Amino acid sequence: MTGWQDIEAEALRRIHARAWPPGSTIPHEADLAKEFGVARATVNRALQALADAGWLDRRRKAGTRVALHPVRKATFSIPILRAEIEGADSVYGYRLLGRTLEEAPAPIAARLGVAGALLHVTALHLADGRPYAHEDRWVNVAAVPGIMAVDLAVASANEWLVTHAPFVRGDYAIGAAAADDAMAGVMGAAIGAALVTVERTTWDDTAGITAVRITFREGHWVRTVI
Amino acid sequence: MTGWQDIEAEALRRIHARAWPPGSTIPHEADLAKEFGVARATVNRALQALADAGWLDRRRKAGTRVALHPVRKATFSIPILRAEIEGADSVYGYRLLGRTLEEAPAPIAARLGVAGALLHVTALHLADGRPYAHEDRWVNVAAVPGIMAVDLAVASANEWLVTHAPFVRGDYAIGAAAADDAMAGVMGAAIGAALVTVERTTWDDTAGITAVRITFREGHWVRTVI
DNA sequence: CGCGATATTATGTCTGTACATATTAACAGA
DNA sequence: TCTGTTAATATGTACAGACATAATATCGCG
Predict the structure, then answer these.
(1) Which end of chain A is more exposed for a tag (fewer CB within 10 A), N or C?
(2) Cα B13 to chain centroid, rounded
(3) Taking a contact as any Cβ pair under 8 Å apart, which residues of chain A between 74 and 103 contact chain B?
(4) What residue is closest to C16 (Cα–C1')?
(5) Using the CA of A61, which nucleotide's C1' is the nearest one?
(6) Which domains does chain A have, with CATH numbers?
(7) Residues of A numbered 9-48 whose beta carbons fall under 8 angstroms of chain B's beta carbons: which are they?
(8) With bands split at pLDDT 50, 70 and 90, how would you rate the model's confidence at B162?
(9) Mean pLDDT value across residues B66-79
(10) In which band, very low, low, confident or very high, does the pLDDT at A71 lie, cut at 50, 70 and 90?
(11) Alpha helices in B38-112 (DSSP H)
(12) What is the ipTM for the molecules in this complex?
């Protein structure tokens, strides 16, 4: 019982065992430092980690309280589709379906905060030669002009953007959409099948970068651990 | 430029500005400490936060490298449905549809690691009197026997479990399901509508606690910021 | 008893030093 | 030139002490 990670684990055990019940104030850092025979800074480090994870609420002077309802979080990594497909031991494939410079629908233009023509890219991502995800993307070429020189028949817009267009904020949503004729056709799904759909928009310091809608194959689930 | 948060912000600015490009090693902590006129521990604290957020990879001796592809994470809070509905300024309502003690389907029994009868609860969560989410839940009564005494006609199983059954791990998945006759009827959705479906299973130290499937109303999206 | 001012105090942060650990660099020998 | 051993070193951690900040406790007065 010497390191901050040991102390973190013991504190978490006491929370789970209800020795420190939800809503209650736990012993002070100085007291816990005495109990464990370590420096106060070491206790502080351990409790900081638990607070970051949502188990504790901490305020100067007010003390440290076990969160009443620990806000449980589910964290999904936003993978590059290639990594996701290859990570499942499948062979990744990519097919560009369309690439135009055109005005985006009003909601997307509003979201990206741009007027004028955007690069519109549609593509298919394959796993073992079969459709895995359909991508429908709008890119603000004023923000990332370099993409105009990229051969999107061989490399997906996302893979290029990940390395050339760092974003400072984004939004992300998961929904469900019924496959219409076109989507059912391109994805090899039943007409009307419920497909997981992800929408993501990213911004850099000054402008919207890209808005994308990804529609996954029938039966796809987005999974994580809590 | 004195506190660890200032240093964190400046480091992040350099990452975004590509002064420290992806894959490259950044200056050593000791050097940055000299540059900023602070203690090395202060630089360490700032870089730790950036590493926790995924911007940096750090190894003893090897130094600190800007993540090649920062793994972006989307973090969703797993709210109590009442809080979610009330948080959207709607009136929360709850209706118990069914409560039985019976054997669970094999996959669920396997997942919870239990044999024998489980408490099976179905319920409807309402927003402004209209269906918001349908809940289909299995509870391992051997793990949480107290639930047998709970009047689930007035309080949802989840609200009781949150305060009485802390879990130490869980899994979480978001998918899409087409509304069949029964679901369309109870949710007031079109038959065949694509509905966002969440499945969650939680375990305590020794056993599975509960497995739940929540089907949201038509048009529901799970949203967060990156 | 209630309110405002002051004192106290628990967490947040910073510093400097020391030691631990994992990784890279350097060196010697085959 | 390659391999194994040793040395050097950058981050990880711990300690002790100090100061800052925000919140609670205490005290005095009307």
Answers:
(1) N
(2) 29
(3) 74-80
(4) B39
(5) C10
(6) 4-66 (1.10.10.10), 81-216 (3.40.1410.10)
(7) 15-16, 18, 22
(8) confident
(9) 77
(10) low
(11) 40-52, 81-87, 106-112
(12) 0.76
